Amino acid sequence: MLAGALIVAVAVTGAALGLTHESDATVLPSVFAANGRIALLDPTLSLLTSVRPDGSARRVVARCRHVLTPCRIRLFAWSPNGKRLLFFRSDGEQSYVYSLYVVDADGRNVKRLANCGYCGAPVNSGAAWSPHSTSIVYSGENGLFVVDARRGVTRRLTRCGTSCSDLFPAWSPNGSKIAFDRRGSLYTVKPNGAGLTKLTASTARATDSSWSPDGRQLVFDGPNQIYVVHADGSHQTLLLDGAPGSGPSAPSWSPDGTRILFFYTPGTPGAYTAEVWVMKPDGTERSRLYQSGCCVGTWSPPIWSPDGTSIAFSANTAGGVLVMNTDGTHLRTLSPSPSDIAWQPIR
pTM here? Predict the structure, then answer.
């Protein structure tokens, strides 16, 4: 599975948030962003490109520096202001040793922020920008780390222990908390490392969390399930339950908070299909927007466009990376190869 992530910014008063960067406590506008370019990888995973949503004007954003040494680019995400893109790249003789980079949207000013070793590898565990695009949280050795996106100063945020990792970080829309997965449970922590809180009750697994635009709830994966929980850990609710191996998975909130997008792979082992669905936040009014043929292998979760009018997704059985309207119409192919995807917001 490939993964990707999208962050939506809303207004907040920062005096009581306990933040370590005053820029993250500034009031944010609650308007939706416009649609920019879509970032994706070439089949070799050594070239990061971006393209307009209609498939035109493709450009190279980042590439591997040396073709004769092991190199791979993975786990990229646009900053909420759309000006930069983070990505992980392995540059040395060991292809599993990664560094965290940022690059301008036009491919200029590539900068290495952290030589973080295993940070790019653990089960696509991702990274997330702070709402004001000033900091990045990522999963590293035995915990989470936060790095200043301008100066590259890194500090440890959490420590999980030698036998576990803190994975899938997701910054809240107001910047006050970071959600993440620890040993299959959903936790939150303040950006200064205080206030570690376990949110989820007993589920076999809790991962791939996504904040609601107002920051009051999180939707997340269970074992072939989708749950929603309040930001204080109350009112955990099962929204959808699937058969083993089928999903549902990778839920994400629409920019206006009225719908949840998710991926489904119904079928039998070795013969699963790829489906894209939406539902209301209470689990009702489910609608299938797309269905592929057999047999899905490589895929990337569906994502909303920044303005909420379109959806992008990727699967080998879908014929690569596709974009469609939110009602499933006007389907078009951006790339014939499946890839991670990230949609640039423009403010």
Answer: 0.89
